[in-house]
Amino acid sequence: MDLSKIIKVENILLERGRNAVFGTLYLTTHQMIFRSPGQKDEICILYPLIHTVERRPPTTDPKVWPLTIRCRDFNIYTFSVEIQDDATDVFNKIQKLTCIGSIKQVYAFEHMFEKKFPSSDGWSVYDVLQEYDRMGVDNATGSWRFSNVNRSYTFCATYPRILVVPAKISDNVLNHASKFRSKNRIPVLSYLHWHNKASITRSSQPMVGLKQNRSIQDEKLIEAIFRSNIKTLSERGSQSNLIIDARPTANAMVNVAMGAGTENVENYKNCERKFMGIDNIHVMRESLGKMVDVIHTADANGLPIKKHYLDKSGWLRHISTLLESALVIIKNVHIFGSHVLVHCSDGWDRTVQLTSISELCLDPYYRTFRGFQVLIEKEWVSFGHKFSDRSGHLSNEKYFINTASSTFNSVQSKFSKQSHVREISPVFHQFLDCVFQILSQFPTKFEFNENFLIKLHYHCYSCQFGTFLCNSEKERMDYKVTSETYSVWNYFNSHKEMFINPLYNEKANPNDNNDDCVLFPDEKIVKYWAGLFGKHDEELNGNNDEIREEKVEGFAARIRWRSNSPISRPASPNVNSIVDGNIWKDDTPSPSLPFNKHVKLYEDNPYYDPWKNNSNKMGNNNFHTVKDRSMSNEASTTKDKLTNNDFNTIKDRFMNNANSLARATISIGTSAYYNVTSLAKSNFDLGINETTSPVEITNNTETQNLREMESFSALSLSENSKNNNSVTSNSNVSTLFTESRSPRQSISTNFSSYTSFGRRESFPSLGIKPSSVPSSPSSRVNSPSSDPTSPLSSTSSRSNSLSKKFNSESKVSSPLSTPPISSPPATTELLKDLPHPLYNVDVFSSP
Description:
eight-stranded mixed β-sheet; disordered C terminus; five-stranded mixed β-sheet; 27 helices; alpha+beta; 36% helix
C-alpha cells in the first residue's frame, strides 16, 4: 500500500457523542481530516493522538462497518463506512500511519516547513545561567557553582548539560557520588528560595540494597547542600532539613530487595526523612482509565455522569496526595527555612511533580505566562522526564482491535500481553491537573487561564511541536529537535491573547517580606477537571447526594432495611406487616432482588420474627419467605436454604424451651404449695382456729400427686440440661424442691425413685395427657406408651389406679389443680391471695 497516497472515502457517517453527521474522510500522511458540507470547521485527528482503534462487526439495518477511534484527548469518534473494502482500507492505513518506527516520522519534523509563527523565540525561553542567576545563584557568593561535569552527557544521560551543585564539592566527588544513585542522578539544585535561600534539590533513590551500603561522597554532597544557607537563615528559626521520598513506604522497601531503597538518616547530619505515599505510574494509569470509562459510558447511554462512580477511580485522591506532599515542601522551605531533597525511584516522574508544584507556589514568577514556560522547560524537559514513553508517541499495533474479522483475532487482540502500555502514564497530565486545582483556589494569582493548560495537555500528545518529543535533553540533541522542529512556545506566544487570565493581579518580583506571594493550596478542596473532558463543571462536580437515583437505577450499594430505620422504602416489610402475615410468599417475585434470589425464613435472617405464630406452616414446605431487598454489590451473598430436617430441629428446639419454661413454673408452684401448707399448719399450732386439727399430708393421693409433679419437673429440667449442654446436676434440681420444706413436710425426692416412671409424658393425676405435652426430638418417633420395653408401660396400672382414686376424691378437675386441704374459711381466703405463677388464676377454683 502506498502510504503517501491520500485516501478519500465519501458518504461516511461520523458519530461523536449524541451527534451524527455525514461527510467525507481524508487520510493524509500525518492526520485524518473529516469534512461535512453542512459544517464550517473540519475535524483533524493527528495520528499520535489516537489511543485505540476498534473495527467492529457490521450492523444490520442499515448495513455499515463501524470504526471507533478513541483519542488521548478523551474524544471518541465512530466512522461508519458503507462498503466493506473501504472500511478495511481505512483501518489498515490508520494502523500503518500511527505505528511508526522512529520519532523522526512524526508531524513535528514536517510542520516546520508548512507554517510560520510570528513568535520565534520558543527554544530560547529557558536559559539555565540566566534562570539560576535570577534565583540568586552566583559564583561570587561561594555557596553554589555551575558544573560542566555532564557537558557530553557521559556523566548522566538523562540530566542536563549544566548542573548546579554546592561550591565546596568538586567534580571528582560528584563522579564517586553518582555511583550511589540510580541512573547516576545525583542531588543537584532545582530551586533557591528568594526569601531565605533555602533550597529544593532533586535526585534519584540511593543504591542502599540489603547490605545497607553507604557512600561517603554522597553524604558529603548532601551535607554541603544542607549547610549552604547558614548565614542567611530567617529570623523565624530553622528546623532539621528534610529528605522527601515520594513513594509509599512499601514500595521503597521492595526496592531495597532490588539493590536500591532509601536513605539511612543516621548517616546524614541534621535531617529527617518522610514518605509521601504517592503511587507509581501503573496505579495512575489505571485510575485515569477508570475515570474515562465512566465518562464515556455515560455519554454513550445518554445518562448523567455519576460522581460516586468517578470517585471510585481514586483520581482525586491522587491529586490531593500530590498537593499535600507539595504543601509539606512549601512550608519547610518558606516558613522553617529548611533545605528539602526530593526523590522517588529514578527521579523523573513523582519527583518532578513535587518540585514543579512547590516552585509554582513559592515563586510568583512561575505563575506568569512566560515564567510557567521556564518552569516546564527547567523541571520537565531539561531534567529528563520521559515524554515519549509516558505519552506513547510511538504507538503499537496491539492498540488496533479488529473484532470484525474473526472471533480468534478478537480474543487475541483483547487478551494479549499488555507490555506495550507499561511505560505509559499520565504524569504530566497530573501536574497540569494540580495547577488547575491551584488556579481554581487562587484565580487572581495566575497570568494564564485554564485554556492554556488544556492546550498544553493536547500538544503533549499531538507531536506537532518538538518541545515534548523524546525522553531527555540528550535525545533531543541527537534527533536535532531544536533545529528541525518548532517549539510549542512559538504557538502559545503567537496567540497569547487567547490564554491570558483577565483576573490576574500579582507582582512578578516579590518583596522579601511579602508572604502573600507564597500560595498554600488546600489539598481537601479538589474537583474534577471538567474542561479537559469537554464538559461543564456541574456535569462532573454536581450533586453528591445521589442515593435516590441509585435506588431507582439499581446502582451501587443499597441501604439495608431495618425495622427501626427512619428511611421509608416502598414495598418493604415492616413489623406490622410481618405480624399481620402480610409478607411475600415463594411465588411472589421481588423486583429489587439481585438474580431473583429468595431467602428462607430462619433465625439468622434479619427479617425473621420469632414471636409470630407460623405453626400452620411448620409441617410442610410452604414456608414464609422474604426477599433481601438490601443486599449491596460488595456484600451480596446467597444464604444456604434450609431443609425440612433443619427447620424441624429449630421448631423442636423452640418447643422444648417452651416446655422447660412450663415445667419450671410447675416446680415453683409445688414449692409454693408446701410453703402455704406450712404456714397454715403454723397458724393452727398457734391456736388461731382450735376447732381444726393440724394438716397432715398423709393422703396417699396427695402424696402421689406431688411426687408426680416433682418427677415431671425434675425430669424435664434434666432433659433440658442435656439438650442444651447444661452443667446443672440432678442433685441441684432436687435441692430446689426440698430447701423450703420442714422435716415433717419433706417428701423423698431421690431420683432413683423416678426411674420407675421413665420418660414420663402422661400424668393422669395432673390431667396431662400424651397429646398435650410436646414430644422431645429423642422420643418423637415412638411414644413410650406404645413401646413394650418402656418403663412407663410397667407402671401403667399404677398410673390408672392413681387417676381413678384422684378423680373420685378430688373435686378439682383443672390440669394444674393442687390437692384439697381441709381447712377453715380463714385459711382458704389466705391461700387465695397467692396467685398462680404462670397463669395468674385462683389455684382453688375450678375451670
